[in-house]
Amino acid sequence: MPLLVHVFGSRWPITGSASPACLKLLTWLRMAGIDHEVEVLRSGPRSKTGKVPYVTTETGEIVDDSEVIIAQLTEAHGVALDAGRTAHERALMRVIRNTVDKSLYFTTLLRRWDEGWDETKHAYFDDMMPGVVLALAGFMIRRGPLQQARGQGYGLRSREEVYAEALRDLEALEAMLGTDDWYFGSPGLTDALVFGTTENIAGCPLEWTPRTRVLEGPLGAHRQRVLDRWWSA
Predict the structure, then answer these.
(1) Cβ neighbours of residue 160 under 8 Å, at least 6 residues apart?
(2) What integer is the mean pLDDT of 104-111?
């Protein structure tokens, strides 16, 4: 049985998955040349955390958390994408990961699950449950992500403050990329990580200033390079 990757889909025109973490993993697998199949979930995740992505390995083991999955597959398949990174570059990789997986994650979450809920619920769940069920269960589905955002402080800020925070994060990612095509000079996990979020911002039709920044700035060019190299076929 090949490696099976379980992800959320979407009715939005987003490549791969409307989950940044799922798209990061799918892109990294393509970069690493690891054979896999994809299952778009039509019901709740069966992972221990109840989150996506998760994989079912060739032996039937379920492994969740994209970072854990990537670490295990890197060792098992001898993936060398980031093998030559210096200690300084690895430190920057961690800083970028925290920027994307924490700050940008919550600002993007709020754009979708707060003011963009009417569009988000249909894009995420119309293929998973009947409309009447979604209408009844929508409050419960939405409550968890919004509570997470409030717990991190993002959900307590004004929309203007949230948008400004996201723009500062994107500006920092642009500065760390600089004039290079890829982070740290060659394609690796950081490129998959950043692409997972920029594609989700750009491909999602919800308008906000960070989407304009991605589409018109250097991260948009980086996004296109990833699309052309690993998602064109």
Answers:
(1) none
(2) 97
